[in-house]
Amino acid sequence: MIRKYFGIAARRYHAFSRETIKPSTPTPSHLKRYNLSSIDMVMFRNYIPLVFYFPNSSNSDRNPTKIAEKTSQLKHSLSKTLAQYYPFAGRFTSGAYVDCNDQGIEFQEARIKSKLSEVLEKDNDVALDLVLPFRLEQQGVFENDSSIMVVRLSHFDCGGIALAVCLSHKAGDACTFSTFLAYWAAVTRQSGEEVSPHFISSPANDPIAMPEVVLPKRNWVTKRFVFPNTKIAQLKNVVASSGVENPSRVESLSALLYKCAMSAKSSSTGSFTPSAMFQVTNMRDKMNPPLPITTVGNFLWHLCVPTANENESNLNSIVDQIKKAKKEVTGVKVLDVKDLIALLSKFDARIYKGYYFSSICNLEMYKMDFGWGKPVRVTLADVQFSNSVILMDTPSGDGIEAQVSLDNEQEMAAFKHDKELSAYASLQ
Q1: Which of 71, 86, 370, 424 has the lowest CB atom count within 10 Å?
Q2: For 25-46, how does the pLDDT look when each residue is reduced to its tens digit (9 = 90+)?
Q3: Are 355 and 389 in contact (CB under 8 A)?
Q4: For 365-393, what is the mean pLDDT?
């Protein structure tokens, strides 16, 4: 691993630069203060790091003049986008609001002395450390005076591009991130398809006092698994045959991965460990009234599925609990962080082993077109926790890719060789 990393890191950059991109128009005085919701306030102080890899679309992509034109166009469109998403160009103050002072965001540019194909063939962490604006081991933690968003544009010798965009989790969730990127991409390619963001005015509140959370050292093991739609359909049929009505793709697959992760832990420790699945769900379409998909902020909730003993670890039981948890939060009018904290506090980490699930399926990440064609790979880096699963659509839309992080190599080996998992997945 060390040799593999330094083999590519030694050929790292031709050149590197950074600058600040500010909104194309000043933020009006009445919008200078953007209050955070109570959910925003308790989000971890880290970036959500998302990377898009674009292949060389024509021989002209290697021409220095064309590269400069492409970069200039991207910066210009980013400036115009920030005028709409004005809080992202501000700074957090006191943990309760954003000072929309138009200080701008950090934009980095690098020339990498390597081919894009070489990087994509490497271990996922090696590739990410090359194109992200921070090292993975730093886990993307930011200070209040830091840029709310950081962008790095990396040019490869072959003409390929990596676009890394990192958004503070306090500013928004994955849905916010995707609508921002869709707006920026539409402006860049001048399609006229931009959909303006929707802001909700939160009341002014004092910062919520939360205990300082020290993120664990990033020494876990991450692997990618692909589940074709044909296999997921078979899995859904298995779940439905045991009495669960209309199991979804994400529900069925999450249940399978959770079950196999618990089994891998049992193989490692020699006995069953009481566990709990924490599945993040987008609340915009579940609230009363529903919110537009372009609503900015953290409109999310945790669906909690406790598994106290091995008898509760069957697929239909897990999916049934996911559905019940989802039904309980459907139709809520307000997301109150006190209710969320009360919910999560039921699962003492000293008793329950937590597994954290997020899905960015249906957010159309592989349709982000900045005028260079669609990306060949999109990666959401796992910077927070072990025992986490990130689900996203495959590039062609013919399945789901699961990025699975477990505590150690022993657990991952048991997970990979789980016969039930192998019946539906291929390891990438």
Answers
A1: 71
A2: 999 999 999 999 999 998 887 8
A3: yes
A4: 89
